[in-house]
UniProtKB/TrEMBL annotation:
Residues 156-413 form the Polyketide synthase-like methyltransferase domain. SMART domains: PKS_MT. Its EC number is 2.1.1.-. GO terms for molecular function: methyltransferase activity. Residues 131-142 have a biased composition (Basic residues). Pfam families: CMAS (PF02353). The keyword Isomerase does not apply. CDD domains: AdoMet_MTases. InterPro entries: CFA/CMAS (IPR050723), CMAS (IPR003333), MeTfrase_dom (IPR020803), SAM-dependent_MTases_sf (IPR029063). This is Cyclopropane-fatty-acyl-phospholipid synthase family protein.
Length: 437
């Protein structure tokens, strides 16, 4: 009799201490759980072994990437329900040690082992990067980490990002479908240009230039001379081709270069859009100091960076296992206050901070839609495992931004000269007129 789903549901509810919020379908075709909820499809017993040998987020991620787990129904709803039961549980929940002393909990674990079959841990999916987190953020390790993420293939990123080829938060004038992703990305690039006050003949350093979109926009729309740097050979080749097609080779240079090796300052302005998350806490002051020294007095930095919520005990911060293993190896998120403090310690005067949190949620949902509409081609280009990685990480990130678990901020900082003349207007940003009382 096919009853694996009902048995698994009972075991999981024992382990969670709460009703399972999604429906389950198991390898024998049986189903159990709320009839109208999204369906978590457990395609084989190997998925259970992954969870037993690596409990928590990484075990779930391995099962997802390998195709042992899938979801039928709305992905965002399913992730939201699971997050509330698994990832966002109260801080005062029982510890594992306390749980293991509970006879019912031990019984549930034994039941899960019995359902999982032969007790052999499955090998992690080949897309996983696992190495000790020591010796981080050397020039070699940073280049290897960047290559893992960005050298998936330019055609794959064309599917996800669309024609703009901008891999950072867009700036939406209105939510979709009133505004398109391409319009929102253009508006973001123009927002950066206006905050930097770019003018013809100036020199702009674009740190982490990606596929060249900011460099092209600054040169074409504002007459700026640009140096863009990236650690990805594939990005650099793609950016150079785009620049040649735009007829901007006399104004834009793309280098495969570490920010620590740039030695041809001073620059009038520096943009760092979605790059600083790769720097790491141990190197962040060095990063800020290098950029400060590359600017002329009065020059501006636009630092566009994802931030996490601060913890009561910052020493307890741990990098997200799934993101570290599959998406951004060695990446780290810092609270906004930490970033501002380090920029100031490097000598910058921080003049403006703007949160774009909701904008990133909209951007990520658009990227997920692009990926899903081009799924067959994406799988042909990058393989099913890598495509599932991108789908899961972008959808989960969209929810994290929507729920204020992470944010993204643009920080405008100035290398203010000794005279104190920052060069900014008295009201650099004007809020909208107040509405009716």
């Amino acid at each position: 009799m096919a009853d694996a789903a009902m048995r698994l549901k009972g075991i999981l509810e024992q382990l969670l201490g709460a009703p399972l919020p999604v429906r389950i379908r198991t390898w024998d075709g049986s189903e159990a759980g709320p009839p109208e909820a999204p369906v978590l499809v457990v395609r084989n017993r190997r998925a259970l072994r992954r969870l037993l040998f690596k409990p928590g987020e990484l075990g779930l991620a391995r099962a997802w990437v390998a195709g042992d787990l899938t979801i039928e129904g709305d992905l965002y709803t399913a992730l939201g329900l699971l997050a509330g039961s698994i990832w966002e549980r109260d801080e005062d929940a029982r510890t594992l040690a306390q749980s293991l002393r509970d006879p019912e909990f031990r019984s549930a674990v034994r039941g899960l082992f019995a359902m999982a079959g032969p007790p052999l841990p499955p090998a992690p999916p080949r897309q996983e990067v696992r190495r000790p987190r020591r010796g981080l953020h050397t020039k070699r390790s940073d280049k290897r980490a960047i290559s893992h993420h960005y050298d998936v293939g330019n055609e794959f990123y064309e599917i996800v990002l669309g024609p703009s080829m901008v891999y950072s938060c867009a700036y939406w004038p209105a939510p979709p479908p009133e505004a398109t992703l391409e319009q929102a990305q253009h508006d973001k690039l123009e927002l950066v240009a206006r905050k930097l006050d770019l003018r013809p003949g100036q020199r702009l350093l674009d740190v982490g230039c990606g596929w060249g979109s900011m460099a092209i926009h600054a040169a074409r729309e504002h007459g700026v001379n640009v140096v863009g740097i990236t650690l990805s050979q594939e990005q650099a080749a793609y950016a150079r081709k785009r620049i040649a097609e735009e007829g901007l080779t006399d104004r834009v240079e793309i280098r495969v270069q570490d920010y620590r090796d740039v030695a041809d300052g001073p620059y009038d302005a520096i943009s760092s859009i979605g790059m600083a998350e790769h720097v790491g806490s141990e190197r962040y002051l060095e990063y800020a100091t290098v950029l400060h020294e590359l600017l002329r007095p009065g020059g501006r930095l636009l630092n566009h960076q994802i931030a996490r919520r601060p913890q009561r005990d910052e020493s307890a911060y741990q990098v997200d296992e799934f993101i570290d293993a599959y998406v951004f190896p060695d990446g780290e998120l810092a609270p906004l206050g930490t970033t501002v403090t380090l920029l100031e310690r490097a000598g910058f005067e921080v003049r403006d901070v703007e949160s774009l949190r909701e904008h990133y949620a909209l951007t990520l949902r658009r990227w997920v839609a692009n990926l899903e509409s081009g799924w067959a081609r994406a799988v042909a280009l990058a393989g099913p495992g890598r495509t599932r990685v991108w789908q899961l990480y972008m959808a989960a990130s969209a929810l994290a931004f929507e729920r204020n678990r992470i944010g993204v901020n643009q920080v405008v900082a100035v290398r203010t000269p000794e005279s104190g003349a920052s060069g900014l207007p008295l009201r650099a940003r004007v809020w909208g007129a107040p509405g009716p009382a």
